[in-house]
Amino acid sequence: MKLTDNFDARRLRPREPRRWRSRFGMLLALLLIIFGALLTLAGAASLLGIKQFDGMMLEAEMAIASLLLGLFLLWIGLFIRRGIRRRLYGPSGISLSPRLGKKR
């Protein structure tokens, strides 16, 4: 069989998914992580009584709420980021049977 000039091997391979959605998701997860860390630090600083900034002291209930909300946002951001990274860098080729990988 003679190959012609218009043969393109890239047509035989499946197209890779677009990466803009995963990049947007990673950006959202990063913003959640940063905001959660800042809220956690502000709540912990208010609970510990650190008076570095004049108007930043919160009441005890607000400091606890800020601390818990910050930890929750931090956890959600890490969970989203981990899921997206798992999808991005997951298996991208041949899936071998576990039996074939065993040593005899």
Description:
This protein is mostly helical and 104 residues long. It has a domain at 19-88. It is elongated. 56% of the residues lie in helices and 0% in strands. It has helices at 20-48, 60-88.
Give a concise summary.
The protein is an all-alpha fold and 104 residues long. It has a domain at 19-88.
SSE blueprint:
Blueprint: H1 20-48, H2 60-88
The share of residues in helices is 55-70%
Q: How far apart lie the N and C ends? A: 43 Å
Shape assignment: elongated
Query: From the alpha-carbon coordinates, what is the Rg to the nearest angstrom?
Result: 25 Å
- The average pLDDT value, as a whole number, equals 80
Strand percentage, roughly? under 5%
Largest sheet, if any? none
Order of helices and strands: HH
Number of helices: 2
Task: Give the low-confidence spans.
Answer: none
Count the strands? 0
- Derived from helix and strand composition plus strand pairing, the structural class reads mainly alpha
Keywords: Membrane, Transmembrane, Transmembrane helix
Transmembrane segments: 60-80
Keywords:
transmembrane helix, mainly alpha, 104 residues, 2 helices, membrane, single chain, transmembrane
